[in-house]
Amino acid sequence: MKKLFFVSLSLLLFGASLFAQEPLKVRADAFPPKDENNDVKATINMASTVADMANWNRYPTYETYIAMMQGWAEEFPTLCHLDTIGVSVNGRQILSMYIEVQTVVDLYRPEFFYSSTMHGDEVTGFVMMLRLIDTLLHGYGSNEQYTELINHTRISINPLSNPDGTYRSGNHTVRNAMRYNANFVDLNRNYPDPFGTEPMQSQQPENTAMINYVTNHNFRLSANLHGGAEVMNYPWDSFTSNEQPHPKRDWWISVCQRFIDTSRSYSNSHFRDTYPSGYTAGGDWYVISNGRQDYMNHYHNCLEMTMEISSDKTLNSDLLPEYWRFLQHPLVNYIEEIHNIDNSSAIEEVTSLPASTQIAIYPNPSKDKIFIREELTNQIELFDIKGIRLMQLPAGSRLVDLQGLPQGIYFLRSGNRTGKIVKR
């Protein structure tokens, strides 16, 4: 703890020297967290029916939220289906709307994931994600951008990943929401850490469910929405950029710049409370461990960033339409970024390769061993997602032992053929 404190203090002092004209705001996601009690001063109006959400200036009750998600699934059966990711400690549903065009031929389309409100009192993203679902579904066929996006992308949107924290005081209100889940655990300090530490408390049901969900998909790009500041936060969170920059740091910076530029074209006053640029590497702001962002990047080969989208964690409900005005277009455009990802990493994108070049393996995912269905004539190599070679096997080998490896994504290569492995 002392080492973390002094590193964090030095980062804060360094930031202050660079941006003396705009004092650095303490990271909303910092550890230990700061209880702001934003909702004491906020006007919080609740929607007890779906009709009450018509103007998008209210927060839904839990029952209204469930009804909205079920309603879209029923209204647009050929465009979306409702997934249950899991249930919370107190039995509330953790849902995701999976938006995709139903086709006879299952063409390759990359998978995108939005998730919000893993800190239960950071509820602006909750409503933004609900409105994004509504906008995409109702815009299909009439809005060219939305139509093209849905035609060429599989989009999963999880508006609320910590329902017990959000509805702490009961299903009827988000007032007095709390950061933690019902076990008083910070869900963003409760993921397997790819860089050597263990979760500070036993893995929570909400995170177990989320891990199982993302393991069963192949998300290539994602974002996790928070509140308490306005800044785009790209990986790594576990290191400063000087210690270990993310392999796609330059790409992340260009993505953040496009997001901020688009947002400021609708409201120039936002995304200025933390860094003048509106974005930062997570560890340059504040180093944390056991966070979801680094877990997704490392273990699932998924480019995930954290979007802090509102300075107040619990935003005045009357301001929700204003926030949608400057967030709508950058949020949609961020989904499109999945089609701009370069393949500069050491391992090719296996999912986009023709079936004839893929190595057939089973079972996949696997906890311990995988088997190769055919006899390969070239030496077989196993790589992690950073492109580091972990194992060499002679040509003709049929068994790959994964027992000594951590959970995550791995790749086999034999000659010009590759195969993707998920280790559970």
Describe the protein in words.
It is a single chain. By secondary structure, the chain is an alpha/beta fold. The chain has two domains: 339 residues, 3-Layer(aba) Sandwich (Aminopeptidase); 72 residues, Immunoglobulin-like, CATH 2.60.40.3080. It has ten helices and 17 strands. It has an eight-stranded mixed beta sheet with strand order 3-4-6-5-7-10-8-9, sandwiched between helices. A hairpin with a 6-residue loop joins strand 11 and strand 12. The longest helix is centred in the middle third of the chain and has 18 residues. The two termini are 31 Å apart. The N terminus is likely disordered.
In a nutshell, what does this entry contain?
The protein is α/β, with parallel strands linked by helices.
Offer a few descriptive terms.
424 residues, alpha/beta, Aminopeptidase, Immunoglobulin-like, 2 domains, four-stranded antiparallel β-sheet, globular
Can you lay out the helices and strands and say which pair or pack?
Layout: H1 2-18, E1 46-47, E2 59-60, H2 62-75, E3 80-87, E4 93-99, E5 111-116, H3 124-139, H4 144-152, E6 154-158, H5 163-166, H6 205-215, E7 219-226, E8 229-234, H7 249-266, E9 279-281, H8 282-285, H9 292-299, E10 303-310, H10 320-336, E11 361-362, E12 369-372, E13 380-384, E14 389-393, E15 399-401, E16 408-414, E17 417-423
Parallel strand pairs: 1-2, 5-6, 5-7, 7-10, 8-9
Antiparallel strand pairs: 3-4, 4-6, 8-10, 11-12, 12-15, 13-14, 13-16, 16-17
Helix pairs in contact: 3-10, 7-10
